Structures are given as structure tokens and as C-alpha cells.
Amino acid sequence: MTQENGRTRTAPYTDPPFARTLFANPEYAWIWLVVRLYVGWQWLDAGWHKLSDPKWMETGTTLKGFWERAVAIPQQGRPLIAYDWYRGGLEFLLNGGHYTWFAKLVAVGETLLGVALIVGIFVGISAVVGGFMNWNFMMAGSASTNPVMLVLSFGLVLAWKTAGYWGVDRWLLPALGTPWQPGAVPRLLKPVIARFRPRRGGPAG
Questions:
Q1: Cα separation of 91 and 84, whole Å?
Q2: Are 131 and 150 within 8 A, CB to CB?
Q3: C-alpha–C-alpha distance, residues 67 and 60, integer Å
Q4: If you write DSSP's letter for every residue of 136-151 in order, what string do you get?
Q5: Closest CA to 148 of 138, 160, 162, 158
Q6: What is the C-alpha to C-alpha distance for residues 141 and 137, in angstroms, rounded to an integer?
Q7: Closest CA relative to residue 29, chosen from 203, 159, 154, 145
Q8: What is the C-alpha separation between 73 and 82, in angstroms, rounded?
Q9: What is the residue-wise DSSP string for 58-100?
Q10: Tens digit of pLDDT for each residue in 88-102?
Q11: Is 57:102 a contact under the CB 8 Å cutoff?
Q12: pLDDT band at residue 190, thresholds of 50, 70 and 90?
């Protein structure tokens, strides 16, 4: 709904029934539980072994090699990266030696992302992060399972209200709410926060 001249107007379009059922009905949350567990396990499995690998957590040489292969331009055929601006970004990271810390970020990020999806905490946000990582891998020329993972992440984003129903989000989302619909915790803290807000005007000096 929107506000116009002090009146509340209903939006002319609403979601189709199948979308409301699939993405917002807790009865179908089991579908997103299966998707969540699959995508979460893929990320956890990808990141967990990196945490004990010195080439990821100390030197970053594995990531360096991946970037070097991605930015290489062959004499014949098409390069792995189709966009010059993306290749330039990776070359900047390579030339600056940023793969040493970026590799740690990838390893820890993949692991935490997998855990978040499996336990169902902030599923919508976690799926956005995961989809962004899939997109980056594909931009660097690595297909693998990334296209499928990206599509499944889109589904989790669309079903953010119920995708974590069988998980921590079942209690976390009602407690925190959203910026446009605060949950129980913000409502309880609102009087406390209001006491610390500076008052307008103030005593005359």
C-alpha cells in the first residue's frame, strides 16, 4: 500500500496465488529446507577443507593460481573472462598481492555461509551473499555447480520469509522484524532508545 494525499491506496498488482503459496506459506517451508541444506552443504564442504590448507590460510597461492588462470588471455580462442573491467579488477588484486588475505576471506566466508544456511539464520541475506559469490566465480570463468547454486539462491531470496521456518529464522525473524515492520525486540527497546535521543531545542544558553 502507498500513501497519497493522506490517503492509503492499495497497490494495483499483487503476487499470483502460486507465488504466495510457494514463497510465503510455512506449509511449503520443507521445500526450502531441502534447498537450504543442499546449498548450505555445498558451501560448507567447499570452505571447510580450505581452513586447514596453508595454501589458502597462509600463502593464498591456490587463489593466486586461480586468478592467474582467469586473467590469462590465450593466443587462440576466447579468454575465460569476457569483461575487461572484471579482468582489470582481478589483475589489480593480483599485482597488489591481495590474494593472501582474500583467500582467508573466501575460506572463512564459504564456511560461515554454509553454517548459516544449514541452521537457517538470516536465510535471505545469506542467499544473497552466496549468489554474489557464485556470480563472481562465473565471471572468473568457472562454471562448475555455480549456475545451479545461483538459481537455487534466487529461490531462497524470494522465499526469505519462510525459507528459514525450519531453522533459527523461525524465532529470529519475528523477534527482530524488518525496518518496515519491527519485531518484538525493537518494540521493547524503543522506549529505552527514545530516552537517549537528544531533545530538540534544549535550554536557552
A1: 10
A2: yes
A3: 11
A4: HHHHTT--TTHHHHHH
A5: 138
A6: 7
A7: 159
A8: 10
A9: TS-HHHHHHHHHHH---SSS--S---HHHHHHHHHHHHTTTHH
A10: 999 999 999 999 999
A11: no
A12: confident
7, β-bridge pairs: 4
Bridge partner residues of 177 (DSSP): 182
pLDDT in tens, 132-174: 999 999 999 998 899 999 999 999 999 999 999 999 999 999 9
Q: Which three cell numbers stand for residue 87?
A: 579482468
Cα radius of gyration (the chain):
23
Q: Using an 8 Å Cβ cutoff, are 123 and 117 in contact?
A: yes
Cell of residue 45, nine digits: 564442504
User: In degrees, to the nearest 5, what angle opens at C-alpha 128 toward C-alphas 126 and 133?
Assistant: 95
Q: Other CB atoms closer than 10 Å to residue 112's CB: what's the count?
A: 15
**Residues 137/144, Cβ–Cβ less than 8 Å:** yes
What whole-number distance in Å separates Cα of residue 150 and Cα of residue 164?
Answer: 18
Q: Are 30 and 120 in contact (CB under 8 A)?
A: no
* Cell (9 digits) for 153: 539462491
91: left (phi over 0), alpha (psi -120 to 50) or beta: alpha
